[in-house]
Design brief:
CATH topology of the largest domain: Rossmann fold
Bound molecules: S-adenosyl-L-homocysteine
Order of helices and strands: HEHHHHEHHEHEEEEEHEHEEEEEHEHHHE
Number of domains: 2
Shape: globular
């Protein structure tokens, strides 16, 4: 029997003992296994890493979010103490840019205690180094639950896509959960649970109940959505930015990325980033069910344009060299453009907030 010294052998061992595992369990192990998990062992971000995110593309992203948070804090009645919480802060770039920009609202800056929710030891060490000289208290936590209660502003960029996703596949006799098994060739393969998922159809949006055989539906545990709703429904607001769909949809969006290229999801467990699109409708419904008010989701492009990314780019360009100005322009386009290279349409922004707060910046009606 494999000895568990690599994630591959550990997953084989688990399948041998307990049978095929769900796709969600496979994803959870690949990303966050305490010893071999992808996030646990490395810094995956940036041009030398596996993928690049909006805050790593441009300082404007974090700056606009910092100003968003300052405006929301005022709407909350400017509480003397506010928890500025980030879920999955990566290299900490977004938070550093946000805090610098928030410096223009002195009272807000003074009210902030930063709470970073980070599962990766490697990234936490990197964040600690970058936050060392900051004049704002910063605390780390393994989960959102561990952050003390109180007025909160929560930011999550490209966090939810990394949370494990379940998949169900439609067959003649109903929906079966998709699993990971070991094939005759000794390699990992996708399989289906023997039994159908009981009453799965009745929980599905009406339009998806008559889906053709072979259709795939993905869902996540709604714990994070409920936690966000619970924490923000009084004196709180959360901003979630990620790639995903505004309405329920069918499709297999599970993907593996390593070294900026797509790879096989099953080939190098723990060696590639695994993600799946965010179902913003499901996220919003769960958060709303517990008392949070939903704003959006809207396209990231619209959110950033309404927050003034064009003005910010122009201000930065005015002080920049020609090369640097071009870089700023390209970054602004990448964050707002449609198409395969742009993040403007694929990415969405959703806010969950205390119903008392009214419309939030960026989410005001277009009228
Ligand atoms: N928000 C950052 C990084 C995105 S990558 C950016 O935009 O650049 C995903 C981040 O979420 C990483 O910091 C990763 O370590 C963290 N993460 C992934 N799963 C997590 C979990 N279950 N709990 C806490 N942090 C998690």
């Amino acid at each position: 029997m494999p000895d568990g010294s690599t994630l591959e052998s550990e997953i084989c061992r688990r399948i041998a003992i307990a049978g095929p595992m769900t796709v969600a369990e496979y994803m959870r192990l690949c990303l966050t296994h305490p010893e071999h998990g992808y996030y646990v062992t490395r810094d995956p971000l940036g041009s030398a890493g596996d993928f690049i995110t909006a805050p790593e593309i441009s300082q404007m992203f974090g700056e606009l979010i910092g100003l968003w948070a300052a405006a929301v804090w005022r709407q909350m009645g400017a509480p003397e103490n506010v928890r500025l919480i980030e879920l999955g802060p990566g290299r900490g770039t977004l938070m550093l840019d946000a805090l610098r920009a928030a410096g223009v609202v002195k009272d807000f800056r003074q009210a902030i205690v930063v709470h970073l929710v980070e599962i990766s030891r490697a990234l936490q060490v990197l964040q600690q180094r970058r936050f060392e000289t900051l004049d704002v208290p910063v605390l780390w936590h393994p989960t959102l639950d561990d952050v003390p209660a109180g007025p909160s502003i929560i930011i999550a960029n490209e966090f939810v896509d990394a949370l494990p996703v379940h998949q169900a596949v439609k067959q003649d006799d109903g929906w079966h959960e998709r699993t990971v098994d070991i094939g005759a060739d000794g390699k990992f393969c996708f399989a289906l649970s023997q039994d159908t998922l009981l009453h799965f159809d009745t929980g599905l949006p009406r339009a998806l109940r008559q889906s053709p055989n072979g259709s795939i539906f993905e869902w996540r545990d709604d714990r994070i959505a409920l936690d966000l709703g619970r924490r923000t429904r009084t004196d709180g607001a959360a901003l979630i930015l990620d790639y995903g769909h505004i309405k329920y949809a069918l499709g297999d969006t599970l993907q593996a990325v390593a070294g900026h290229t797509y790879t096989d999801v099953l080939q190098t467990p723990g060696g590639a980033d695994l993600t799946a699109h965010v179902d913003f409708e499901a996220l919003a419904q769960s958060a709303e069910s517990i008392g949070g008010r939903i704003h959006g989701p809207i396209l990231q492009r619209d959110f950033l344009l309404r927050l003034g990314i064009d003005k910010r780019a122009a201000a930065l360009k005015a002080k920049a060299t020609r090369d640097k100005a071009l870089e700023i322009e390209l970054a602004a386009s990448r964050l707002t453009e449609s198409g395969a290279k742009g993040m403007g349409e694929l990415f969405k922004a959703l806010a969950i907030a205390d119903p008392k707060l009214g419309a939030l910046p960026g989410f005001e009606s277009l009228l």
